[in-house]
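Service request form, structural biology core

Requester: graduate student, group of Dr. S.
Request type: structure prediction, single chain
Budget code: on file
Notes: please return the result as structure tokens.

Sequence provided:
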Amino acid sequence: MSDSNKKPGQALDRLFASERETEDFRFDTSVARVFPDMIRRSVPGYTTIIPMIEVITEQYARPGSHCYDLGCSLGASTLAMRHGIGDRDCTLTGVDNSAAMIDRCEHYIALDDHPLPVSLRCEDILDTFIDKASVTTLNFTLQFVAPERRGELMKRIADATLPGGVLILSEKIRFESEAEQAIQTQLHHEFKRANGYSDLEISQKRSALEQVLIPETLAEHRQRLTEAGFDRVLVWYQCFNFVSMLAIKSP
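Core staff response, request fulfilled:
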């Protein structure tokens, strides 16, 4: 495919292919440009999680409610939610604090032929007003929120979730057992090698993310979600050290 025919975001991820000075990972224009390729090759199960978000949204979205994709990046989960909502009378809002991501997300939303309007906000999800929510998605977003602010965010989401509503929370996790952590990390690295990343790319990206992406254990996530006010928390998907959970408010 020639460059002139490429859609925004379809470039190959080569950001860490050459030696570079270590700096914290940022969702800037260079990342937004290669993000679809980056996340597909870096997150095992991502191509399964996105269509299942549509299935879950179809099950739980309620007429007259609001649906939110917090940390929407280029809108893959936003579009899945849009199609899951179907023709129900719901609003759908995507939020991201990266202007580069929102700019490209607008393009993808416009290309999609579904009639449901999507409102996009460029703001910090910690400042986003949430109300009467039936489905909220945090797809690999919470891990980038400062750990001391995560409980506050989960409480606001739980308080705003209608009875019978859900939170879809996808995260990279760490394991309580050092032996399991080592095995799962190695398998994740092998996944990335199988997708064409070199050892240099894997090492440099890991260093860039080290102080930015802070994973937690499943037990920590469960406890926080329960304390926030969700009644049931279940893992509906796991591949290596990546999981997606469903937190449910009782009807």
